[in-house]
Amino acid sequence: MNSSFPVLTRRQLGSVAGASALALSLGSVSALAATPVDTLVVAFAFDDMITLDPGETFELSTSEMIGNTYSQLVRYEVTDPTKLYGDLAKSWKVSDDGRTYSFELKPGLKFASGNPLSAEDVVWSLQRAVIMDKSPAFILGQFGFTKDNVKDKIKQTGPLSLTIDTDKAYAPTFVLNCLTATVGSILDKKLVLSKEVNGDLGAAWMKTNYAGSGPMKVREWRPNEVLVLERNDFYYADKAKPARVIYRHIKESATQRLMLEKGDVDIARNLTPQDLAAVTANKGILTTASPKGTVYYISLNQKNPILAKPEVREALKWLMDYSAIGDTILKGIGVIHQNFLPVGMLGASTVNPYKLDVEKAKALLKKAGYPNGFKITIDMRTVQPVQGITEAFQQTAKRAGIDIEIIPGDGKQVLTKYRARTHDMYIGQWGTDYWDPNSNTDFVRNADNSDNAKVKSLAWRNAWDAPALYMQADAAVLERDPARRKAMYEKMQAEFRATSPFIMIYQMTEVAAYRSNVSGFRIGSTSDTNYVYRAAKR
Amino acid sequence: MKFSRALGRFALAIVLTYLGLLAVTFFIGRVIPVDPVLAVVGDHAPEAVMARVREEMGLNKPVLEQFGIYVAKVLRGDFGTSVLTSNPVLDDIQRTFPATFELATLGILIGAGFGVPLGVWAAVRRGGLADQLVRVMGLIGYSVPIFWLGLMALVLFYAKLDWVAGPGRVDVTYEYMFTPSTGILLLDTAMQGQWEAFRNVFSHLILPASLLGYFSLAYISRMTRSFMLNELSQEYVVAARAKGLSEARIIWRHALRNAMVPLVTVITLSYAGLLEGSVLTETVFAWPGLGLYITNSLQNADMNAVLGGTLVVGSVFIGLNLLSDLLYRTLDPRTRQR
What we know:
Chain B: Pfam families: BPD_transp_1 (PF00528), BPD_transp_1_N (PF19300). Chain B: It is a multi-pass membrane protein. The structure holds 2 protein chains of 2 kinds. Chain A is an alpha+beta fold. Chain A is about 30% helix and about 20% strand. Chain B is built from 15 helices and no strands. The chains are: A alpha+beta, B mainly alpha.
């Protein structure tokens, strides 16, 4: 990576590494495996990382990189995601009509490049994301911003102040939560524009380079090999604990485990339940876990006349052995959850009424006109734990006469079919785009159920037309009283549980195992709050 | 005149092979039921963004036109940008190929270095203990999954015995002690006099290379054995024995020399196979090579990367076939006369 801001040169880093090597070589052979004390080494599968540009990326690993290296106007507390605090913003207020948000920035802020950070950078970064209109731009677009009007809607009002005008009086929590998303990251305007080519707002350069102001900065990214972060000495708040964090792309759980046990890595991030159970027996290794904003579900395409029957939809919900799946396949990596909002989010419900009840399902099938069951297919990505869950479901559904044929495929293949809504049943996951309940109303939103609809939400993909719920979702996003808003989402979930063609199965738990000389590392609700910069080593 | 005509035919064959390779890969990439746009925008992007990216990628154009555009770009030396890495495909290949090259070269040196003598030994001691031993080694090489064997080797030699370094190409400590100019880390560290780092790189390399070497050894030794058995039953061997030549001379100077002719093809093709990148070995040993690169690209419908990678693999095969032809001519004078 060619960075124009000061970073350690290879020679300087070489001498640091050289000194560490010398120190280590005086020790025993096995000590050679230990990582330098100021360097955190993380084994992590990051092959989803395709760009480093916050205005373009939507991937989980990049999100973690951005969370540690960029700043936003506001953020939420890792310990309580419903609480917001100012990151770059010193304060903010919402106008009486609920449509203007005024922000005041903290003074003396700087980017990792050493350039000063002002309201100009904030305004430009947010406008840039909308103008570029890449995948995550819709998060900001929800407030009525378009390429043409965004310069009038997001305006600098002073060296350290700016305003954001929304098209409707949205719930303030919704607007602020969207600003915590990675697309709300603030870029070094001067640096990025110096790399601009043909008016691309620096997009080509930003794909593989860094221009932020977070606690760490990106030194190098070699796709599918290594991502190196370094401490940003210009960071305005508490300095990052490690001098550098090295992510090594190691896909195999068993390999990660060996390297963790050996001390070649400090944290292993993608251990299977089996490997996780094995490392917990090791006294030198600790684990941490957190529920994430990703829910797994089976959906039933309403274009299929059998699945369109309400009794069939309900019967299938009673044909999943949730507790057995939770106790075995999901142990340590997920918890049973039958709602579309993940736990931890405003208004999330923890009511899980369904359990395996074959007799009840049979009665419902009889009522629907299928006393002997039917044959149906399910499209499935061949990865665990999805495969295990699907096979378990296939077995239990058979007990009510439903013969499920599993159609396996790889991720993109299954997704292509799902998006074309040519499946019968589909098992998949949905990760929240920003930490606000509105993000997951994709499960109920379907303004136009025709094949050529412009918005292809999850409800659309399953041809589910639920205007009543859609209207509730629209009303909830405008509700400015948090308590009333919470109640509205709870009501929607109750209705959804009973009538939707979605069998919600579980919420993902992200787990990491780390060596006992590491402290301060914890996993957040979303990838961008997995703060490695807070982890210290002894 | 004759030579230039042969050269011309050879060049034409190469061009057609490349074109065929490109066409097959390109059209397979277009008929598989995977939307390449998803690789760029992800699953959550709105339809409008998907439609725009589809147009930007030229996927709205007729397939033949897309192919034409692609070939024209390749002829200009532009392999496009990889969706997954945001880098030009050529840069990615320059980064991943040396890793595979280093691994495969050491692998084939081990495979041929041990495989040929073992095969000869087994042929000479046909039916004996040595023969059985070589056969069992070959059988294990064929039947045990490389993935499992790799993990077991790591557990034993890395985790338990501490003889070798673990997965990856170099330890974090040495990562920035040298500039990876050629990408072949043994060479880079040696050229820059970084001997500590050189030892560390070698320590990382030896286990996966031995594993690949073992698998090619299994094949090479079996083929050597069968070629040698064929040679040892020839009349010239009987004649040589009758003349009173020593057994060692007969085996190593006469029979092996003749057996080497077909064996060269076996070894070069094994090498070509290793240069394609061994996906499973690269996965277990977290080796950032070409095999992983192409597989990952395929799974994500990153077609520029797949096509670029396929061209490299094709070139390796064409190059090594050519090399094997040349060696053939050197080793067997009869082929030169034809």
